[in-house]
Design brief:
The protein is of the alpha/beta class. Helices cover 47% and strands 11% of the residues. The strands form 3 sheets. Strands 1-4-7-10-13 form a 5-stranded parallel β-sheet. Helix 2 packs across helix 8 and helix 3 packs antiparallel against helix 4.
Length: 282
């Protein structure tokens, strides 16, 4: 088969099956563009830790300003594509959708100080809770749980503002990088710590309180996955000061883990437990 025939066959599959993303007014968000913006936001959170750049007191304002402008421009473009796609799907007026894109991108930038405050508390929780943690800087540079939580706090802000698709691209990017799968819809309180992290799953309607610690392999999931339950609370509520050890599975939207409880490793929990409970395998 000649090269021309190979190309023609591939193009024919485009026509038959679709799933191509042309760069036009009908285009879908681009995964790499979203990831590039996310990396810029993470760098904005912790300048000098993630990218090679010369930072000093006298150029910090300039560098920060240039980065904020790049983020707003890039994020606005991808939000616009995502919202227009959703409008077309739902038959909504497209002109109204486009007006929200820049406003939403700017709103995220306005929340950066508050998101940083929460992430600092998450880092402090890791520093206090992990004997292997030597410093704040070590945690920022090397802890996958902190990176996953930081991305979640960014994605959740966009999710809360009704941005389609982009929060999931962000959450799945960091899922692939760290093995930690947190749906951007999950509500997570302050001083959250995921130790080790690989295999942690946190479902869309999960609610997690303050000062909660998860170990690797923990699943906060649903009892069933029927499509008609999409708008229902399907995942558990974890109250303040709870520790959940490795391999534990907690399922169900009505399941509440009471404040101060300890859930032992490899346990299977589908019913609520009162505050200050200790749950282990019988």
């Amino acid at each position: 088969m000649t090269t021309d025939n190979l190309i023609s066959n591939i193009l024919a599959s485009y026509s038959e099956y679709g799933c191509i993303n042309l760069s036009n007014s009908q285009s879908f968000p681009n995964r790499q563009n979203v990831i590039d913006v996310l990396v810029e936001i993470l760098t904005l959170m912790f300048p000098g830790f993630r990218t090679v750049e010369q930072l000093a007191e006298d150029n910090l304002r300039y560098v920060t300003g240039a980065r904020v402008n790049r983020i707003i421009t890039g994020l606005t473009g991808e939000i616009k594509k995502a919202t227009l796609y959703l409008c077309r799907q739902r038959g909504l007026e497209q002109s109204a959708c486009t007006k929200l894109a820049e406003k939403t991108a700017i709103a995220l930038m306005e929340q950066i100080p508050e998101i940083r405050r929460k992430i600092i508390l998450d880092i402090d929780s890791a520093l206090k809770g992990d004997p292997a943690a030597g410093s704040t800087e070590e945690i920022i540079l090397s802890y996958p749980g902190i990176e996953a939580i930081a991305v979640h706090r960014i994605a959740h802000e966009l999710y809360q503002n009704g941005v389609p698709i982009i929060p999931r691209i962000m959450s799945e990017y960091i899922h692939g990088k760290t093995g930690i799968d947190i749906h951007p819809g999950a509500t997570i309180g302050e001083a959250f710590f995921i130790d080790h992290g690989t295999g942690v799953v946190v479902g869309e309607t999960t609610v997690i309180g303050n000062n909660v610690k998860l170990y690797q392999g923990v699943t906060l999931g649903a009892l069933s996955v029927h499509k008609e339950q999409r708008c229902c609370k399907r995942h558990p509520t974890i109250q303040d000061n709870v520790t959940i050890y490795a391999g534990a599975t907690i399922l169900g939207g009505d399941t509440v883990i009471g404040e101060g409880s300890i859930i032992g490793g490899n346990t299977w929990v589908t019913e609520s437990v009162p505050p200050r409970s200790i749950i282990t395998i019988n």
